[in-house]
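Handout for the seminar on molecular recognition.
Each group receives one record of this type.
Step one: identify the two inputs.
Step two: read the structure output and locate the region that could contact copper (II) ion.
Step three: write two sentences on what you found, then compare them with the reference statements printed after the record.
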Amino acid sequence: MVCQKIIATGIIIAALTVAGFAFSGSAPEQNSEESEMPVKGDVIMPAKASRPGCEELDRCYIPSTVTVESGKQVIWVNEDSAFHSVTSGLYDEPTDLFDSGHLDPSESFAFEFKESGTYDYFCTLHPWMEGQVMVG
Ligand SMILES: [Cu+2]
């Protein structure tokens, strides 16, 4: 009888251990889809953004407007097969806050926004490409 009790207790402990392991193991699994991508961008430059017309569909930078807290960085990823840039200001009126330079396909650029405000940016190669970062 004593022996059976010990075995039964052992099985319960083993079952709890397996359950606990499965539970703690499920947490990182939720992020596995994101980590499959080389870089997880907040904004992407999609295929064909180099052609005029993406602005009509609001698909030059996706999303074209992002909101972040101050002190946070925004990451852009060029998913197009053409060069693009992420340059602060407007095409006719660039500012010197940030400029990615020419981004190769699948290259990324990150910038940390320290002060709240609304920041326009554009692509130096394709003037129709415009986006905005709202920093709260
Ligand atoms: Cu571009």
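Reference statements: Confidence is low (pLDDT under 50) at residues 6-35. The helical segments are 2-29, 32-35.
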